[in-house]
Design a protein that fits this description.
Elements (H helix, E strand, L loop, with lengths): L1 H21 L9 H21 L8 E3 L1 H4 L5 H15 L6 E4 L44 H9 L3 E4 L7 H5 L15
Parallel strand pairs: 1-2, 2-3
Helix pairs in contact: 1-2
Length: about 180
């Protein structure tokens, strides 16, 4: 009912504008019904859209960077995922995310801005460091970790940087599926 009243008031306002501009009223126009239906349709559409804009709660999850920076291991990650599953899932937590530099070797000299410590495949794509993520060996990636997380009733995520890594560029790795490498000669 409120939507219909709103449409009538808006129609009256539009009619006043139309009269001011043309000197004629829509009241005697054959397109009056079409205009009213058009206004009602878009007003009703707008009412539903306003209600669907907001989530009832924000997304909730745990991110490895907040506790471990970039040095987290598979064992530490899965231990924390178990805690989230047992203690926080019931409170709406649903995500566990491996963040930042999961592909970096954890060895002397490696830190957040160091070069040459990333584990990349033959096409320059980052892959999990197999020393930190043992289940990733043999090209398995995060498959096992994701399966374990899903069994806990959680969703698994990883942080991925866009673009080409400096290490892949410096190694002049080929671009998968082409005869092109990163270096421009």
């Amino acid at each position: 009912m409120l939507v219909c009243l709103k449409a009538v008031f808006e129609f009256q306002a539009l009619n006043r504008c139309f009269v001011a501009m043309t000197g004629h009223s829509w009241k005697n126009s054959s397109s009056l019904l079409l205009i009213v239906l058009f206004l009602l349709f878009f007003l009703v559409q707008g009412q539903g859209a306003e209600q669907a804009v907001h989530a009832s709660i924000p997304p909730r999850g745990w991110n490895s960077y907040d506790s471990f920076s970039w040095t987290i291991t598979e064992e530490q990650f899965l231990d924390n995922a178990r805690v989230v599953s047992h203690k926080l899932l019931q409170h709406g937590y649903q995500y566990v995310v491996v963040d930042y530099l999961w592909y970096r070797k954890f060895e002397p000299g490696a830190y957040t801005n160091s070069l040459g410590f990333d584990v990349i495949d033959e096409w320059g794509r980052p892959i999990p460091d197999p020393k930190r993520w043992p289940s990733s060996k043999g090209g398995q990636g995060f498959k096992s970790v994701a399966e374990n997380v899903h069994k806990m009733g959680l969703k698994f995520g990883i942080h991925v940087m866009r673009g080409i890594s400096t290490q892949a560029f410096n190694a002049n790795t080929p671009i998968m599926g082409s005869n092109v490498s990163y270096m421009i000669s």
